[in-house]
Amino acid sequence: MPAIEIIGLEKTYTVGFWRKKPKCALRPLHLSVEEGEIFGFLGPNGAGKTTTLKLLMRLVYPTAGTARILGMELDDPRMRAQIGFLPEQPYFYDYLTARELLDYYGRLSGVPGKERSHKVDEVLNLVGLPDAGGVQLRKFSKGMLQRVGIGQAILHDPKVVFLDEPMSGLDPMGRREVRDLMERLKQAGKTVFFSTHILADAEALCDRVAIIHLGELRGVGAVADLTSSVHGRVELVWQGNTIPAAIRELGAESHISGDTVRAVLPEECQEAAIEALRRERLHLISLTPVRTSLEDYFVQKLQPSRTVAEVRS
Amino acid sequence: MKARIVAIASNTFREAVRDRVLYNLIAFALLMSGAAILVGQISIDIERLVVINLGLTAVSLFGMVIAIFIGIGLVSKEIEKRTLYTVLSRPVRRWEFIVGKFFGLAGTLIVNTVFMAVGVFAALLYVSHHFQQPDSWILVALYFIILQFVIITALALLFSSFSSSLLSAVFAFSLFVIGSFAEDLRGFAGLTHGLTRWLATGAAYLVPNFCALNVISSVAHQQPVAGQLIFYNTVYALIYAAMVLSGAVLIFEHRNLK
What we know:
The complex is a heterodimer.
Chain A: E1 4-15, E2 21-33, E3 38-42, H1 49-56, E4 64-69, E5 72-73, H2 77-80, E6 83-86, H3 98-108, H4 113-126, H5 142-154, E7 160-164, H6 172-187, E8 191-196, H7 199-205, E9 208-213, E10 216-222, H8 223-228, E11 233-239, H9 245-249, E12 253-257, E13 260-266, H10 270-279, E14 284-290, H11 294-302, H12 306-312
Chain B: H1 2-18, H2 24-42, H3 47-71, H4 76-80, H5 83-88, H6 94-128, H7 137-160, H8 165-180, H9 182-191, H10 194-206, H11 216-220, H12 227-253
Helix pairs in contact in B: 1-6, 2-3, 2-6, 3-6, 3-7, 6-7, 6-12, 7-8, 7-12, 9-10
């Protein structure tokens, strides 16, 4: 049974006061996330990531489609007790101390009184705020609020954790700690669904990712599988300070440095390039494949699809 | 369910306390002390009447202002600040949130009223040096004032569930003013004919009847309040508040929290 199953979830808002117009925030989305996965939901700002999370949290209602979490319907309170959610740029009751806030969320999630106090201390330690439990949240920095936010999302030991831009507002150390925390959640058998537009985080953490743009799913799969689908490139390095005309014609990006030349060109042109070097009697030093990054895949997927482009024109 | 409602209510109460809402009691205490000293010096034989009238009217107005200005932000502020997102992602039903908020503010107002009531009785004791048997009717007047708070809290919550804080304040305050003249509106409806009569009667019964819940003047004149009125007013206020709260829940249940 998948931890999260999204079946044709769709959201169209009506905008305008007098002349109301439909605005599609999410086209029918089909997605499945397995238990124990760290799943990255990637897309630029305004892509539909937060809308999807709000739909899953029942903060907004879908125009069409449905979803199940842990095999249960979205409005099932039994399921709600087993999930945790961190919204984007969270804001909490700033008149409460961190300990009071976590205690409040523990009460709402049905954590028994005796266990709650212990859990609150444990979570404060886990998110790196062991000494800030008695401080009112209005005195917290953005990074500290983010940590408290993550704390409230995991306080009740949920099976599935949804994090909307969890690294936002954190310094490099904080980001590292959140990454470690997510790894620990995975090791504890939790499912983590997180949205981000920071690709390095997704590449470092995720078992699988989905890319969404303009409310439309553009790709989904394991990071290694997705990046291998991007057209590969190779880097050639040879001795000398000349670039054969044949290599230029292949569309290579070349750079002369001292008595070596580096050229990056499409993988399928590598034989022709080597042949050109041989003809010119130039000494080939190395030939290495250029590692395709998630960023390359992301950029490729964000290009308007032909259908979409045609519709828009 | 009960535990979640209690948690939300106690958090609402805590917010009011931490936001120094109960500081209004200082202003009230100053007002009552000043009035008692002044009335004691310039009034002859009507000190009790003036202190009870002034005290209970101040209790009512202070409470109404708090009920409206906190009530209008109970839902809309939570949406604007997005604090609601983490609450509703938990096993909290939307109606539980509304009901919890309602009890939280109603509780704040009751505590506030109890403190102000102590102030009224203290001022009364200062000007007349002893209590009289009819003074017990002041408690009934205070009870009716609390019933008014229950209604206005429910109304403020209703408006807060679909409009901005500013509009909610305008709506709630307008209804408070109109409701204070509900008997006049009913009298006016009786003078009209045809469609106007239907509309005026409908409006007169739709707005909360705060006139019936205002016995300040008769209590100040040491007139008793009929038990039947206490019963009917209690039933009226509870049914009215329950209906308004149901409306708030109905609207909030279907609202997209963009």
